[in-house]
Design goal:
Chain lengths: 303, 312
């Protein structure tokens, strides 16, 4: 989870945002898409993620079977024409469960990124704008950083009981401090810009300065960071589910499916391997896409 | 440098208090009444009240927190509800194996990650560089349990090369075979990030003036890279390795659970699943404290490696 933080922070706090970079930071949508399309790996990753996302959204239409329908006479069948990914220990169709499972897995990632990103971005930008709040906010952020995501997951599960909610709370809370630091770093760079001073000089209100000047100029940095965090959040969420602290059976969630399959690994390996492989591919695609976004949107982060 | 370290220690105090407070809160907000849990399901109301009094649960929160810190300092983390052993003893028994696993994982990951990163930087732009970076991205995208599952299934079970269940004792007493698969699993998640950062760092250093000077002096390329470039490129990598401690601790929780490794992480997960609150709280606290300590050590090491930091 912390892999990217040092890279992002160093550059975000030290490099001032130049005029040239601001032009790069908010390119038109068409040119952004064109540049992304030129990167073959990124195009492939985007296509894959789109397919997975569509399958997850339209799971009831796409899934060939009911993911919760058990048929013990068909338990633990290897992949075949009827069941492309085989069946699990209860004879449920693994492909259908993977499709429904990616729903929950992607939802954990998205909620983590969106809610954690909004809260983290809010606090980071506040800290940069109101210097009096800075010390307090960053001290709290430091304390939050003292709890690695998995530990948070353990703590939340200990309090609230294991379940999807526990995982979501854990990934949101774990995302806030990292985003807050990145947002603060980027916002401090923007605060040093002349247009901020100019805005204040002509009497623009704090709210307008924060929203229209500061936030808009930090948004691409935060966005890139969040794309790169998306995969990490999915990894954390599925690890928590794998430990038995997340989604509870019979709910389909990829990490939990891998965990259930683990008990029957030696008899029928596909039950655990296939959901794990799907998580790997989703995270890989998200990371490749994140790297590509970073190269296009925020070259400063590329070290 | 001494001042820098004292300063850093002072900065970590609020974080330390924060961790203790959160762990203390863990006990407070647990949905069930701790006294009722300890007394058991069939306890009478006055028994619960007696336990409540004994635990000091009737006093103000701040007093309870102060007493909690006092008890923690004296190593009193309560008793496990399941085994009725002192939590501190349970934790003490698991700390060695966790430390062993983390060190073994790092010993495996650091040399491989740094070599891959250096090779990629030196051979920049070649197919070798591209394949190493592809491996690195794949590495950071891999769920740790996926690697563990594959190792258990193939190396452990199908090919029957190495044991994969539990720990058979310390490394010097024949425990090495049992340690290999868990530490490969844990270490593998570190290789990618280390390789990526080493590459960037070496690339940056290779463009520096003193490397050009070293080359101009006619030093052999190997000497330039190993003695001049790598030493300086090491600084950010050391920081990263420290920051990865969080990742590694988290990974240790999963790895220990998978390989039945008797560490703190497995203790914590087991305690949470069996609602053994004192043990869960103690294990989570120890993990958080360990994390704080590692970060502190990294900062100190950073000052030592890069004296410029101390002068700021």
């Amino acid at each position: 989870m912390n892999i990217l933080a040092p890279l992002v922070l160093d550059t975000a706090t030290e490099a001032p945002v130049t005029d040239e970079l601001q032009q790069v930071a908010l390119p038109g949508r068409a040119s952004l898409m064109r540049r992304l399309a030129r990167d073959k790996a990124a195009a492939l990753a985007a296509t894959f993620l789109t397919i997975v996302a569509l399958a997850a959204i339209f799971a009831p239409i796409v899934a060939p079977y009911d993911p919760y329908f058990t048929d013990l006479s068909k338990a633990m069948q290897a992949p075949s024409a009827a069941h492309w990914f085989g069946t699990d220990t209860a004879g449920r169709d693994v492909l259908s469960r993977v499709i429904y499972g990616s729903r929950n897995t992607l939802a954990i990632g998205l909620i983590g990124v969106i809610v954690g990103g909004l809260l983290g971005g809010f606090f980071g930008i506040l800290a940069a704008y109101f210097r009096r709040l800075d010390g307090w906010i960053m001290r709290i952020v430091d304390i939050m950083l003292a709890f690695p995501a998995i530990l948070l997951g353990l703590a939340v599960a200990a309090i609230a009981g294991a379940g999807l909610t526990a995982v979501i709370i854990a990934v949101v809370v774990a995302t806030i401090p990292d985003v807050a630091r990145v947002a603060r770093g980027a916002a401090i760079g923007v605060m040093g810009q002349e247009f901020m001073e100019a805005g204040r000089a002509v009497g623009v209100s704090d709210t307008a300065l924060i929203w229209r000047y500061l936030t808009l100029n930090c948004i691409s940095t935060i966005f890139v960071f969040l794309t790169l965090r998306f995969g990490q959040i999915i990894l954390i969420g599925s690890a928590l589910s794998f430990l038995g602290l997340g989604a509870q059976p019979p709910t389909a969630e990829l990490g939990m499916m891998a965990s259930q399959g683990r008990d029957f690994l030696f008899i029928s390996e596909h039950i655990a391997i296939i959901p794990s492989l799907v998580i790997f591919l989703i995270v890989l695609a998200a990371n490749i896409l994140g790297d590509a976004f970073r190269d296009v949107l925020d070259p400063r982060l590329q070290q | 440098m001494g001042r820098q370290i004292v300063h850093r220690l002072l900065i970590s105090l609020p974080a330390l208090l924060g961790v203790l407070f959160l762990c203390f809160c863990l006990m407070q907000v647990v949905p069930a009444d701790p006294a009722a849990i300890i007394a058991g399901p069939d306890a009478k109301a006055d028994t619960i009240a007696a336990i409540r009094l004994e635990l000091g649960l009737d006093r103000p929160i701040i007093v309870q927190f102060a007493e909690y810190i006092w008890r923690v300092i004296h190593g009193d983390l309560g008793r496990s509800i399941i085994s009725n052993k002192m939590v501190i003893e349970e934790i003490a028994a698991t700390m060695g194996p966790t430390l062993e696993l983390m060190i073994a994982g790092m010993l495996f990951a650091i040399p491989i990650g740094m070599s891959l990163g250096t090779i990629a930087a030196v051979k920049r732009g070649t197919w070798l560089d591209r394949s190493i970076m592809a491996i690195a991205v794949a590495g950071v995208s891999m769920p740790i349990f996926f690697i563990g599952l594959i190792l258990i299934q193939y190396v452990g079970y199908k090919w029957d090369l190495l044991p994969f269940l539990g720990r058979s004792g310390p490394v010097w007493a024949g425990g090495l075979p049992n340690l290999i698969l868990p530490s490969l699993t844990l270490g593998s998640v570190l290789i990618g990030p280390i390789a990526r950062l080493t590459r960037t760092s070496v690339l940056e250093v290779l463009g520096a003036d003193y490397v050009r000077t070293a080359r101009a002096k006619g030093l052999r390329e190997r000497v330039v890279i190993v003695h001049h470039a790598l030493r300086n490129a090491l600084i950010p990598v050391v920081t990263l390795i420290g920051l990865q401690a969080a990742f590694l601790l988290g990974g240790a929780v999963v790895t220990e659970t998978m390989f039945s490794w008797p560490g703190v992480g497995r203790l914590a997960v087991g305690a949470i699943i069996s609602s053994d609150f004192p043990t869960a709280q103690g294990a989570i606290m120890i993990l958080a404290l360990a994390f704080l300590l590692i970060n502190l050590l990294v900062d100190v090491m950073y000052v030592y490696l890069d004296p410029r930091v101390a002068r700021q």
